[in-house]
Model the fold of this input.
Amino acid sequence: MSQTTGTVAAGGAHVAHAAHHEEPGFWRTYVFSTDHKVIGIQYAVTGLLFLFFGFSLMMLMRYQLAYPGTAFPLLGKILGDSRMPGGIMLPDFYNELGAMHGTIMVFLGVVPLAVGGFGNFVLPLQIGAPDMAFPRINMASYQCFFLGGVTMLASFFVPGGAAQSGWTSYAPLSVIASQGQTFWLIGMIFLITSSLLGAVNFITTTIQLRAKGLTFMRFPFFVWAQFVTSFLLLLAFPPLEAAGIMQLMDRVAGTSFFLPSGLVVSGQALTNAGGGNPLLWQHLFWFLAHPEVYVLILPAFGIVAEIIANNTRKPLWGYKPMVYSLGFLGFMSFVVWAHHMFMTGMGTAMAAFFQTTTMIISIPSVVILTALILSLWGGSIRYNTPMLFALGFLPMFGIGGLTGLPLGLNVSDIPLHDTYYVIAHFHYVVAPGTIFGLFAGIYYWYPKATGRKMNETLGKIHFWGSLICMNVIFMPMFKLGLAGVSRRLFDGGASYAFAAPVLHLNVVSSWGAWIMALFQLPFIINFFWSIRHGQKVGDNPWEATTIEWSAPSPPPHGNFLAPPQAYRGPYEYSVPGAAKGFQPQFEA
Amino acid sequence: MEIPYTVEVRRDTGLTNGKIGIWLFLASEVMLFGALFASYILIRTGMPVWPRGDTILNVPLATFNTIVLISSSVTMVMAWASLKRNRFGTFRVYLGSTVLLGGVFLLVKYFEYSHKFENGLFPRTSNFLALYFTLTGLHMLHVIGGMAVNAYLWGPGAKLWKTNPEWFTNRVENSGLFWHFVDLVWIFLFPTLYLL
Amino acid sequence: MSSDHAAVDHAADIDKHVKIYITVFVALMALTIITVAISRLHLPVHQAVTIALIVAVIKGSLVAGFFMHLISEKKLIYAVLALTVAFFIVLLFVPMLTHNNGFWIH
Done:
């Protein structure tokens, strides 16, 4: 009783206060905002910048891989003698670039864009909420991410350079590595904190703030994808945080969590207590890093599903199996991690366990991919740019997923582990896989965020160029790996006689990478040009059915002019006998 | 713009946003300390010999600390119960006691740590000590965090009681959940490190 | 009014809760004494670990069940915690199992 009147009084006071409220200044609107849309754009733009930076690191590496030991024009002078004396890349610098490329792409690029960017911007709109459940925690999560990014970038400038023990930071190498590794660990702690705060927000928001009538089985698939992703982040990241703390203790406090006894470095025995276990690091790292790869793909599945339903003008095929597969996939992702550790001396019983769980986890992935492909059957397909990227995603993820199978089986992993085959496999899933999904999402939701569409011609150039180049870069790597060329070799295998017949493939991949960089220019130009000059659109330019398309483009603070309600499922396109070609979820 | 279910519960879940949020956070904390316990298990089972806790650590002091922390959990839940009974004064006494007991816990840990350091026992000395310092150190950071939130709710944060008592009570409850969790971790840490 | 009756406990309910809190407090004290006393027996490691774990689980359950009100919590919270406990157990034991089944030399 007193509760209701209290709320009304508080609400009334709030409205009255708002009438006198000034417009918040520049800083509160664009920098220190608690609005999920602003935070989403902050994540997305920062993530894209890191993606391009991480890509640049790789383009530098690709010169060394294509033409090992030759001088790189110009940059040699800029980067100095400690890294590129006479313009020739030193192996340590190559390792630095490699470790940071991986770290930046995964933790500073893809996840912030896919989860922080798309999740933040789209999720509340798609469930009909005014904002996230915890807007200030949302702002804090971006700030943690930003600090983590700054720390990672700063590490390039410390003596000895940035982390150079792989994005996997295996002990004992990472423990004895130079100062940059400490920065990596501190950066990771910021990033993990950011993800944990975000995960709590997303899960609470999805459960509590969904609109009236929006039951769980009426969720757009994108919402389910972000929901499961958040659980993965919530429960899988903390062990890596613990491991990071222990590695920091090893490096800074002289402990031996990961240092075995009797370690000798450069001819000198270490004076630490010993008795530690390098494999402990691997277990804790992969306990996160395996669910992490599903964090990388699930949002892309979600985006592609939305775009396919919309541009085939028909419901997704197998929505329920897809949703159950998501849940099953999320659960299984916690019990497969040691398939990254088959070569560590594991016995046959545990190897059998992990390869079995790994084979089982391929099933839900296949269900989801198959359902997406079958969703095309009988559709009235509109080949706009988002749809092209979504369509491109399907076979590319297919290749990536299928090539993972021999890696997941213990015996076939033996010759393939840590070769270029692995690099090809995971890049196919993440690069023409996830990143294509993210590009699709940008083209698709850009009109909602800005009120204007991106240019179709530039989009198509971006798509075809990227699709061809991705395959030019990564397809040869399967051959390279099958020939036995290991990953993380600073000369791409040039010092091994057995690699001689396949070395030319390095040149092919490198040119593919450099040309792909050129094909990103239409995208970058399009992105900025369209803010002012793109074709203006209304609320629902794609004639879509999900709730975000009932909000103005761009949505105001609070998102909806009136609280939306869900009256039906998310993909009521081309319903037989209906008056209109599509029944939006939000229309009575 | 009001975010719904901040104070009142959503009918179909029966929960407020804050309650779900804090439990989700605690779930992540279970995994954090779980990883450290897993590390303890892996490292200890990998060593041929491992010292029994009471040969290196001070069991009576830690038993006292265990009693202190459990008591602080009782005062914490009593603080919340007092708010439910509309007894703000009693609430302040109980919450204040919770913070004070937390302070006692920290003081005891300070004595434990400095005694170790004075005797040349550091994290780098052995894996037993590395695990001891890291596990209790991380736990201690959580104690400090919980104390900070409780101190805020006792002090400046208590203003909310006048304008929105329901919301304030929920905040105290959620802070209490975090505090009980910190106690829960210690209930497992104490025997693991000191008694086994 | 009716939407939040769940959040409003009546004074009598709180009195019952308070009695429970005091009982649990006493039980926790007793169990603490017990676990320290048993440790003094210096039992063989396996037994010592098992007993200490059992006592700790009982203590933890009391704190979780009564102080954290888990005993009367909503299904959603139970679901989240069940999932967490499952992964917690995997994390706790699988690395060790992997090692005992392997060829790691110290």
In short: The CA atoms of residues 125 and 416 of chain A lie 44 Å apart. DSSP finds 17 helices and four strands in chain A. Chain A touches chain B through 49 residues (CB under 8 Å). The mean pLDDT of chain A is 94.
